[in-house]
Amino acid sequence: MVRISIPTLPSTPLLPPTQLSLLPLNLASQHLSRFIQDGKGKTGLITGAGVSVDSGIRAYRGKEGHYSNPNYTPILYHELVENSPRGEMFRSRIDWARSFLGYPPVRDARPNPTHIYIAALQVLGLAPKHITQNVDNLHPKAISVIQSSFPSTFPAPPRPTLLELHGTLAKVHCLEHRHEQSRDDYQQELADMNPVWNEEAKEAERTGRRPRTNPDGDVDLRGVDYTSFRVPGCRICRERGGKEGIVKPNVVFFGETLTPQVRDQSLTIASEASRLLVLGTSLATYSAFRLVKQASESGKPILIISTGPTRADGLKGVEKMDRRAGEVLRTYLNDVLKNQTTPEYQAVKESLDKGVIKLPPDVEGPRAEG
């Protein structure tokens, strides 16, 4: 039997704040400015769940690096694909029933200010290539916010490189033929086949009593009878007269490996970057940590701006600001945009205040960026 554990940070004593963490905001911004300027337009970005907390999506880990909900048990990949009645239960009931209720809050979330600031770094060519661990589709939405601000007489530039390392909740695919379709369309199929569950979901939305949603769109439900929940197979397989494949969200489950294409693209982006700017993540997941480790071993500068410990703390070449990334990015961008009048700078200026803050219901005060 293979034992798979949830990625977590090594158990190490909390270190005192670094000198960078103690800098006043204006000096922290100046340090970031020098870091990006020295990258000469080839600074690579890596982001994590902490960036999305201000959009109402909880991070996995809290300020001290601990798993925020230790009693929560996610669906593991080997359970999802197991060819047995138990596997069928996980696929057809627990996984999709929980995901059916957890998807709407993620679907409806809007980019917060930090998403907009990160998109601005890309659009302005300051850090054009971005690898995110997030599956919430908020980074693509943020890029669209800025691109929609370009005047019609000056078309928006091509979308910058964004690799969603762990996939996206905006799509689903079948395991049989990899047929891909919109998650919104599949969500409607689930609603049509499960009217009682759909009414419960609508009531939760009306009253604001939605269950606790994790960054992957899953929810923690206790004492629920899943046996009534029905799950359709792949619509595209059905329309083509073939065997209906099992439908899976386009996200990497715990215990699942990245596809070779995504893995290779992430390694290429990281290797071609002159340095790495890491925002809002503890790097507990190895698929992201190895990119930072590779950069460290190559002698590249690395700047991490995130709250709490990270897996990369102590690596050669790593500088750490233990603070929220958004405030440093905004101060830096205010200086960059000062006295700039070209269309791309104007579009970014118009977009900076379009981020929307909506905290998770149980988050108060300083937000963690695990």
- Structural class of the secondary elements? alpha/beta
Alpha carbon gyration radius: 21 Å
Q: Major sheet: size, sense and barrel closure? A: 6 strands, parallel
List SSEs in N-to-C order.
HEHHHEHEEEHHHEHEHEEHH
CATH homologous superfamily label of the largest domain? TPP-binding domain
- How much strand content do the residues show? 5-15%
CATH topology of the largest domain: Rossmann fold
Mean of the pLDDT scores?
A: 86
Q: What level of helicity do the residues show?
A: 25-40%
**Which oligomeric form is depicted?**
single chain
Number of helices: 12
- End-to-end separation in angstroms reads 30 Å
What is the level 1 CATH name of the largest domain? Alpha Beta
Q: Regions with pLDDT < 50 over 5+ consecutive residues?
A: 1-5, 64-71, 363-370
Task: Compute the number of structural domains.
Answer: 2
**Number of DSSP-assigned strands:** 9
Task: Report the CATH architecture of the largest domain.
Answer: 3-Layer(aba) Sandwich
Shape: globular
Strand order of the largest sheet: 3-2-1-7-8-9
Family: Belongs to the sirtuin family. Class I subfamily.
InterPro entries: DHS-like_NAD/FAD-binding_dom, NAD-dep_sirtuin_deacylases, Sirtuin, Sirtuin_cat_small_dom_sf, Ssirtuin_cat_dom
Region (Disordered): 200-221
Organism: Tremella mesenterica (Jelly fungus)
